[in-house]
Predict the structure.
Amino acid sequence: MRPSKRQPNELRPLTLTAGFSRNAEGSCLIQCGNTHVLCTATIEAGVPSFLKNTGKGWVTAEYGMLPRSTNSRVPREAAKGKQSGRTQEIQRLIGRSLRSVVDLKLLGERQITIDCDVIEADGGTRTAAITGAYVALHHAVNYLLRTGAIKQSPIIGQVAAISCGVYKNTPVLDLDYDEDSAATMDANFVLTEDGRIIEIQCTAEENPVEEAQFSALFALAKAGIKELSAAQKKAMES
Amino acid sequence: MRPSKRQPNELRPLTLTAGFSRNAEGSCLIQCGNTHVLCTATIEAGVPSFLKNTGKGWVTAEYGMLPRSTNSRVPREAAKGKQSGRTQEIQRLIGRSLRSVVDLKLLGERQITIDCDVIEADGGTRTAAITGAYVALHHAVNYLLRTGAIKQSPIIGQVAAISCGVYKNTPVLDLDYDEDSAATMDANFVLTEDGRIIEIQCTAEENPVEEAQFSALFALAKAGIKELSAAQKKAMES
Amino acid sequence: MRPSKRQPNELRPLTLTAGFSRNAEGSCLIQCGNTHVLCTATIEAGVPSFLKNTGKGWVTAEYGMLPRSTNSRVPREAAKGKQSGRTQEIQRLIGRSLRSVVDLKLLGERQITIDCDVIEADGGTRTAAITGAYVALHHAVNYLLRTGAIKQSPIIGQVAAISCGVYKNTPVLDLDYDEDSAATMDANFVLTEDGRIIEIQCTAEENPVEEAQFSALFALAKAGIKELSAAQKKAMES
Amino acid sequence: MRPSKRQPNELRPLTLTAGFSRNAEGSCLIQCGNTHVLCTATIEAGVPSFLKNTGKGWVTAEYGMLPRSTNSRVPREAAKGKQSGRTQEIQRLIGRSLRSVVDLKLLGERQITIDCDVIEADGGTRTAAITGAYVALHHAVNYLLRTGAIKQSPIIGQVAAISCGVYKNTPVLDLDYDEDSAATMDANFVLTEDGRIIEIQCTAEENPVEEAQFSALFALAKAGIKELSAAQKKAMES
Amino acid sequence: MRPSKRQPNELRPLTLTAGFSRNAEGSCLIQCGNTHVLCTATIEAGVPSFLKNTGKGWVTAEYGMLPRSTNSRVPREAAKGKQSGRTQEIQRLIGRSLRSVVDLKLLGERQITIDCDVIEADGGTRTAAITGAYVALHHAVNYLLRTGAIKQSPIIGQVAAISCGVYKNTPVLDLDYDEDSAATMDANFVLTEDGRIIEIQCTAEENPVEEAQFSALFALAKAGIKELSAAQKKAMES
Amino acid sequence: MRPSKRQPNELRPLTLTAGFSRNAEGSCLIQCGNTHVLCTATIEAGVPSFLKNTGKGWVTAEYGMLPRSTNSRVPREAAKGKQSGRTQEIQRLIGRSLRSVVDLKLLGERQITIDCDVIEADGGTRTAAITGAYVALHHAVNYLLRTGAIKQSPIIGQVAAISCGVYKNTPVLDLDYDEDSAATMDANFVLTEDGRIIEIQCTAEENPVEEAQFSALFALAKAGIKELSAAQKKAMES
């Protein structure tokens, strides 16, 4: 029995609010149960130096948690003077995931930065961030199309992400914090809506696990991603 | 005429939502027009070393802006590796303001940290933060009373803050960003509900100004603080 | 009775030595009782990037304390690897105060940096720094005029600063360290010689205070600023 | 055809030299073709604060590259003043991988730090580091057993790691730099000698890829890990 | 001919003012021509962790330059967030030099920190700092003796320092900035009053130089140190 | 008797392996007994800003120790976020020593960076680094000549370095760690093959020492440098 009474293959209640932010060119507030992430997309002229004069654009992401988004307060990274290894790992993952569905040539020499800030955390913040960031990115690209800055959308795929894990010997979908901290295996899947792989990160928490368990998680993820993709579509249409 | 069509002595629409955060011991989302600040209060055992074994507690604050809370993105302080001078100035101000209405002896050897994170910015974030932080602090103190950790509230006053300024030669209350960036004088008042002074910061933007203008701003502020105090009371009762 | 036996409205003995430094384009050693601050003005070609190609110049300030300028040693900020919030607050205040009396267009695309280094500290270092920095700035502008780099002085006002406070229920002028640490209200006034406001910072130390007390401090400050302005004039003439 | 003329399932020439370092309690130089990583294990009394008084030990890793281990020089992280996100990701991965085969209770309250320093880099440095770090760890544990510090080995499994990728549409084992930079999918497998999963990281480089390709890489990895495990065993016996 | 018209073996005019600082336990302002260094000695309970419970004390030094002590402004190290390699080299040298004439056991478990801050720089700041720091140290030790904290002086020798160099093919004593920047060899000697060696640092600026030139510099230094030692004695007596 | 049974004037067994690194334009592994330093030379277009458009090149050095190159682990400087004062002192010394034998005009507007990384440390790492760095530099210059980038070698001298010290009252050559930590005087000599001085650093460890002891060390060093120079020549020919 899951602490949240959910079925093993059941996502948490999901809300995606595109256009949540008044200022950003694109934005989306994603709420997966008690995990709430605000994703904003900023379009800026210019690209990092390694792309100068290539005609290509860049998509990147930054990630942060409000200090008291969690159950006990985590020190503010700005005050500590550096981002943790975990933060850097997550923002690199979000950036890679988004770039895998963007044609950087079509974007042109501009950069889109997606800021993913966790307002409330209850497990699965990195996967929620990817799912929400995709909607914010889409929203920003619409802005570019609407203002005539580009003629053709550089978005060439749809990406979402979900965590799965083995909790009390049962493979379950969309771990919340209680499950996550007790899971013996934890896997994050970043997939396209049709189930192709963009990124898989799978970690055995205490003991190595059998391949079969990994396969079960993968199957759960593919089904979950379908639901998430449908929700993204709805949010993007509104 | 103010850009927002408000009267010179008119506050922006104000909403204070106590208990906004699921995790924190105290919290308040304050929305002053398009300035939205999430204030969370965290209670922790222990005090900074200069207070060890004095029997006194401590109240402190941290402040941050989401990178795209503003019209153009400001770089993330965690990524830059340090907090700006402005950020430090603001969080020191919030902490001082709150401590002026707290009896640290009655608090006992514990620390309350108020995190003030700006979700959307449209001028007046530091004063909104103080007004909201007071509610979050009150909320956290209620938690201490409710759980029996303390018997008597250490809160000995009520504090709120508001900005005023001279905009197109007219003293006006509660500047939004458009007014703030054009004002010739800008003053922040941190007052008790009955108009006593906790902190005044007044800056002539381009040219020195006459004392009479300062007096006009002070009068506006006192009236504004009364309204804010009433709104705080309502939020704290709910 | 003040620890220094001064009258409530009496400044500390004041010496302003313009041209103290052999190397700087402008300089002034200010000694207010036992508070000694060396202010040097450096003129450099070029301006910060936000002013490039605007034809405007810039005036900025930096502040530091020698580690043993104080009664007990404060760690060297260069060794700690960062400037404290207090330091940043003070240097921002000095810079704003000076810019309020400078026509940046007349200065042209050059930057004047005023370094204010506290050699001995006995309260009131930030206000002494402003008063001395104005003389150093004036000294550097004379250098620009003398060398023909500019034809017209960009200095359009005269600024000085002083602290006041409520000490044992009496409003007093020019707090020294003993008074400052016992004051119930502490206010810094940055005014022009004719009493117009450039900046006011007023803080109730433990308890909120009545407006009348603030008014008394303001009156003391205006008289004190007149004396400081006269001393600046003398120093600038020599 | 692979640039190195290897078969798709062929590892690079492998040498593991246990005890390479004169000073460390455990060490191993691993050479996989032109990728050379020196792994040293340091045993220290005490554990990180979150483990104090739990009776448990800790195993952690640090990773670095000599600036000119690569084809063009990478700036020295010590000179830049921080470790890159990539470095932190890798050292966290190495640490997790090792801890998954260690019983921290049996280790007792001591910490083993594995430093993995890349002397020459030609792709696959993180997987080589894991494979070599395991041997260094084993070497250090032998030291603890030999000196009587512990009675029973805390090592409860054997771990190795290998990268695979899709190069010119062919799944291949043990990518070198030329292959890695051209691969359309890149996966790192950290497995036990009997093929159970400790960690999988799989990234599509430009376009999402089919699950079948992932499965092919997994199969290659399992075979490769067997060879690596055998080589580790030999090195540990000598 | 030297720019300053001095003889090759002639020191610059020298003034040592012991007790210059009002706050520090020991202090000395040293003025060697236009090089002015303020040295303050702070006595603090406790020692660095590597000396805890050894009964030994510690003497250490820090060094800094006011940003405009030099002809063109050098950025403030506190603002840059780190001390330069040069600064660290110098403060390590000052500390070692002082410790060589102190019996750390007799000092007891306390630390004396000598802050050497350059007010005006015209070459030879590090050697002036050592010469002045010795007087400040002596001054602080007198304070310990006077207050009865120690019974016997831990100072077991007298140290001074001077720079020499080869300027226009002539070995000269006590280089000023003009000479220093044109010298072909530059040597700093830290000697006891009777000519024994504490530290020698000798650097050929552009081309390697003959041993004979080094010997000539050494001879000059020994004579110069005698003069400096006499001046120190006088300053310490007053 | 020396711990290593060497004669007072006997170097440790020495091996210089030019071309050790596969990637660098120049490299040398120097092994002096158990002190092993890998020196790599990287040639890059461009020079530091102070040399732009002067036609001159630059030679610089960086130095690091693998964390467990020493008997007890030293924390990784990249993880601590800064290089120690000792590291900076050493890399500045190596850079100066190399530049003293290079005609920077003949090098042209390019920079050669010598990375000196200590693989195993047993005393004398800085002097070994200089001796090895010279060979790596020579190796890189040969690359420039061979590829036609320059026509004439900018190397105008040959430099090597050695430490000496007074160990149990006997002046000895080439201190290992055991001797170094017990020596009463420690001197590093950077000399040309014909004995001219590039740099001397001499430090009395506990007590000031007589000039005669310094002279004895100098004599030992000159003989040692001859042997090192011969070994460098052999390594450069191969």
User: Anything to note?
Assistant: The mean pLDDT of chain B is 96. The helical segments of chain B are 77-80, 85-99, 104-107, 125-146, 177-180, 211-237. The longest helix of chain B spans residues 211-237.
